[in-house]
């Protein structure tokens, strides 16, 4: 579960806050999609939820953890255990192959689950890429590896920034089906930033970010 209570964020030198008294609650196993104009603050909101940045005011609680983290070490432990993040830039480790990129987080925790990893890779259609180095992948292939890596350690919260942005329509449907259904089956909370109406409509809750706040209707 995630509970965001009246957060505000203003970057230095900006005329207005990018997020202004924004609140949001999403329960376990549910999902929220967030749409909004470019520059409206969607990535900033994900960054605050992940604890990469802090709000100027308000509070964010993920399960029993209230942000900010007490130390960078605790932040790392929490992110490795509880959080899956799908970044706009996939952040794969170029010198590792697909299998090792996906297994990386689990190996750090010492709890690899090869059969679950194969299950996710099959759902996302990337099993045949298992041994291919990350630097030889297309953008869409990298995106599906990044999604697999975000899910393989069975996190309680997944933050996805444009998870289908680089995919054709058919692959986008397959990948979004897999993302939503894997999260539901793990009872994982999912926050998806997307420009795709099809991807957004699959969420249990749809929101639009405007003037620093979330709305349940488009403008
Ligand atoms: N680190 C930063 N320092 C200063 N300003 C920032 C920083 N990060 C983002 N901004 C500004 O905050 C605003 C919101 O940016 P953000 O990336 O959150 O928007 P977005 O809705 O995700 O956009 P897009 O859809 O284009 O990815 C923009 O005006 C951006 O220039």
Automatic annotation (TrEMBL):
Keywords: ATP-binding, Nucleotide-binding, Transport. Residues 2-219 form the ABC transporter domain. It comes from the Bacteria. Coiled coil: none annotated. Gene3D superfamilies: P-loop containing nucleotide triphosphate hydrolases. The lineage of its organism: Bacteria, Pseudomonadati, Pseudomonadota, Gammaproteobacteria, Alteromonadales. This is ABC transporter ATP-binding protein. GO terms for molecular function: ATP binding. It holds the Pfam family ABC_tran.
